[in-house]
Amino acid sequence: MSGYLDQYGSGEEERNRLVGRLFGALIGVGIAGALGWYVFQFHHEESVVKTFVAAVRKGDYEAAYRDWGCTAEKPCRGYSMESFLRDWGPNGSAPDPAVFGLVADEGCNNAVLFTLAVNAKRQEKLWVNQGSDEIGFAPYANCPRKNPYAVLLDRSLGWLRKPLLK
């Protein structure tokens, strides 16, 4: 004869296992999503700089100057096409194709600060505004007033983004 409480708790173990798996899956999806966001958060700005680098490598300086946010008809104030060619063209300290490329990136308020290796002796800090996608020389060597937790995150997980910069 079965008693009143004989079936009490019989489905508990299966339900606990299901809840544990669901909780573990949610934590895993959350971690994967956060890592994906961290790795790809500057993807658009990186593509803008990579387009600029590709134009300079091909010798298409007009397109590179356009990527800079200027045109030959409407040059940037204080940065003419002649100055641009002195910095990025074959006559000045020309970019070395073996070295020329992105080295590092750093988020800074409403812009991204990129470090660009030009040749063995020269590295440039480029500033890309997130709203306008215009490239310019960075006003700072490092991002001022950056959140200390963001600095910690960049120093501990920054290696995840390095292969994507190439």
Describe this structure in words.
This protein has 166 residues and is α+β, with helices and mostly antiparallel strands. The chain contains 6 helices and 4 strands; from the N terminus they run H-H-H-H-E-E-E-E-H-H. Strand 2 (111-119) and strand 3 form a beta hairpin. The model has no long low-confidence stretch (mean pLDDT 84).
Descriptive tags:
single chain, 166 residues, alpha+beta
Structural class: alpha+beta
Estimated radius of gyration: 25 Å
> Strand sequence of the main sheet, in spatial order?
1-2-3-4
Number of strands: 4
The structural domain count equals 1
Bulk shape: rod-shaped
The percentage helix is 40-55%
Major sheet, described briefly? 4 strands, antiparallel
Q: What quaternary form is this?
A: single chain
Number of helices: 6
Percent of residues in beta strands: 15-25%
Residue windows where pLDDT falls under 50 for at least 5 positions: none
What are the secondary-structure elements, in order, as H or E?
HHHHEEEEHH
Mean pLDDT: 84
Q: How far do the termini sit from each other? A: 74 Å
Summarize the structure.
The chain is 45% helix and 17% strand.
Topology overview:
Elements lengths: L11 H29 L2 H16 L2 H7 L13 H8 L12 E8 L2 E9 L2 E8 L5 E3 L10 H10 L4 H4 L1
Helix pairs in contact: 2-3
